[in-house]
Amino acid sequence: MNPILVFIDCQDKVEAEDIGRALLKKRLVACVNILTNPVYSLYFWHRHIEDANEIIILAKTFDEKWNEIEKQYQKFIPMILQEFLLFPSPMSPKNILRG
């Protein structure tokens, strides 16, 4: 059971809140931070450089929950548009899930 930080891109605050609440309700994450000021993103899409404003979710959880998080996320975002990353966290497990 290793702590991880999941980074999720969302189209807007409503989508971010919906995803965050769903992950919390199923106890797949301990905490969701929603960065409500949009980030300006540049990316390749169909061989062109595109841009967009996005809302970011930072979710704290454990690696054993990753597969279920991915399944929940797929319910909100079409597979072709999904973008999320996970990072190992230096936090100790006892500090992550207190709730």
How would you explain this protein's 3D organization?
- By secondary structure, the chain is an alpha+beta fold.
- Helices cover 26% and strands 43% of the residues.
- The protein has a four-stranded antiparallel β-sheet, covered by helices on one side.
- Strand 2 (31-45) and strand 3 form a beta hairpin.
- The mean pLDDT is 83.
List keywords for this structure.
99 residues, alpha+beta, Alpha-Beta Plaits, four-stranded antiparallel beta sheet, 43% strand
Helix content: 25-40%
Question: Largest beta sheet, briefly?
Answer: 4 strands, antiparallel
Q: Can you count the beta strands?
A: 4
* Distance between the first and last residues' Cα: 17 Å
Radius of gyration: 14 Å
CATH class, named Alpha Beta
**Mean pLDDT score, rounded?**
83
Element order, helices and strands? EHEEHEH
CATH fold-type name: Alpha-Beta Plaits
Strand order of the largest sheet: 2-3-1-4
Total discrete domains: 1
- Indicate the overall shape: globular
Q: Given the helix and strand composition, which structural class is it?
A: alpha+beta
Beta-strand share of residues: 35-45%
Number of helices: 3
Runs in which pLDDT lies below 50 for 5 or more consecutive residues are: none
What's the architecture, going by CATH? 2-Layer Sandwich
